[in-house]
Specification:
With 184 residues, the protein is an alpha+beta fold. The protein contains three helices and six strands; from the N terminus they run H-H-E-E-E-E-E-E-H.
Length: 184
């Protein structure tokens, strides 16, 4: 018996009247679920932080409070990194398109977006320097050449590795948002 609430790849229920089936379009939304690699990496980071927090408690109980504070700070940094890793990706709202990276977040208003399209091209495998042939969702802006903008999503990224149907759904959803709000 399948348990669809436990899996990330449920069947895609499209709204019949609109390609944007959300009530509050002013709220920032990720139009896809984070991939198992991203969720697993964050879970391992949080597991590591639990051990580091336990070590901080043991160090504090033995009497070295300053050392415990340093270890506690390391645990907070690991927790913050794991949560930021979960937050990374492409987000959309009625105000624009937002690309959240590990250290940097960039927002492009819909007025500057010419189009969002999927292209077959060499893409980085899991963000590493090695490139493979895959699909990329690219952003064409009014104020910047296409060569200067990195792809929004790739089929070999951490969220979509070995999940081509999930990449296609995410790309279609972002393209629908761009088509809806790019012409205003």
């Amino acid at each position: 018996m399948p348990l669809p609430f436990l899996t990330a790849d449920r069947t895609f229920e499209a709204a019949s009247e609109s390609p944007l089936p959300f009530d509050d379009r002013e709220r920032w939304r990720r139009p896809y679920r984070p991939g198992p690699g991203r969720v697993g990496g964050a879970a391992l980071g949080l597991l590591l932080s639990s051990f580091v927090l336990f070590a901080a408690v043991l160090i504090a109980l033995t009497g070295s409070v300053s050392s415990a504070g340093v270890v506690f700070g390391v645990a907070l940094a690991v927790i913050g990194s794991a949560l930021r890793m979960l937050r990374m990706g492409v987000w959309v709202s009625a105000r624009g398109l937002r690309r959240v990276g590990f250290l940097l977040t960039r927002t492009v208003p819909w007025q500057r977006v010419v189009s969002v399209r999927t292209a077959q091209q060499p893409v980085r495998w899991l963000g590493l320097p090695r490139t493979v042939q895959g699909q990329a969702l690219t952003l064409v802006r009014k104020d910047r050449p296409t060569e200067d903008t990195p792809p929004l999503l790739t089929s070999h990224g951490l969220d979509f590795l070995n999940r081509p149907a999930a990449f296609d759904r995410a790309a279609d959803t972002v393209e629908a948002w761009a088509a809806e709000y790019g012409r205003h």
